[in-house]
Specification:
about 120 residues; alpha+beta; two-stranded antiparallel sheet; 6 strands; 4-stranded antiparallel β-sheet; Alpha-Beta Plaits
Length: about 120
């Protein structure tokens, strides 16, 4: 079955504080969203990422490694997590993407995974 990656983007300045009632409610919605994927038998993997300020970017111009702190590009929306799903087609992936708890203030990039072999 084809696999699709759902890349979860959002503006951390717009997210509710994790210890606030709103943050706790959103966390619950994320856990429900993940459980729905598991229950549907489409979940392969998924995790939240640490904040963008913990990122390192590696380049190798002229074969020499250069490491810089932070994400690849400065942007308001940062990659906050991902889901890897087994799904029959793009339409199914888009349906899952539109159900993401943060969709009203963030985005989900949907990409098919290149099959091995």
């Amino acid at each position: 079955m084809p696999q699709y990656m759902l890349l979860i983007y959002g503006d951390s300045n717009q997210a509710p504080a994790a210890d606030s009632p709103e943050g706790q409610a959103e966390f619950g919605r994320w856990m429900g969203y993940t459980q729905a994927m598991i229950d549907a038998g489409v979940f392969v993997a998924g995790d939240q990422l640490h904040p963008a300020d913990t990122a390192s970017t590696v380049r190798a111009p002229n074969g020499e490694r250069v490491v810089t702190d932070g994400p690849f590009a400065e942007t308001k929306e940062i990659l906050g997590g991902y889901y890897l799903l087994n799904l029959p087609d793009l339409d199914a992936a888009l349906t899952w993407a539109e159900q993401a708890p943060h969709i009203a203030r963030g985005s989900v990039e949907v990409r098919p995974v290149v099959a091995r072999g």
